[in-house]
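Illustration 12: Thioesterase.
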Amino acid sequence: MERVTLDFPTAAIIHRHPLTVRVTDMNYGRHLGHDALVSLLHEARVHAFAALGLPEWDMKGYPSIVADLAVQYQSEARWPDALVIETAVPEPQGKALTVYQRICHAETDKVVATARVNQLLLDLSSGRPVKVPDEVAQAIARATAQERGA
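Figure caption equivalent — predicted structure in C-alpha cell form:
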C-alpha cells in the first residue's frame, strides 16, 4: 500500500490555532475521526487567513475553493485533548495557494496529522482560476516573516 508522506514547511508558518477535540469529533474507535479532522483543519485554515485580513470567501476580490486534499495520519487524538494546528503557506506560485497544516498535541508536540490543501481563487464571472493577487502573496510573506521573528 502506498502511503501519503508530506513534508511540513516549518519556515512558511503563518499561524497557530488552538483547538480541543470535542466529544462529537470521536468515531467508533473512540479517537478523532477523519471527517472531524478535516473540519478542524478547515476551521484553523479559516482563522489563519482571517488573521491576515483574507477571509476565504473574499481573498482580495476572489473566493477560494479547495482543489485537492492530502492527509497523512500519524497518531491518535481523543476527547478532550488540546491540540494546536499550525498553518504554513509557501510563496504562492501561479494560480494555486498550497496550504500545509500540522495538527499536534498542545502539551507534547506529538504530531497527529499533516495535511496539504491546494486552493484556487476563482473569478466568479468566468468560473476560472486566477493568478494569486500580489496583495495575497504579500500578506502571506508578512505573516511568515512575523512568525520567524524577522
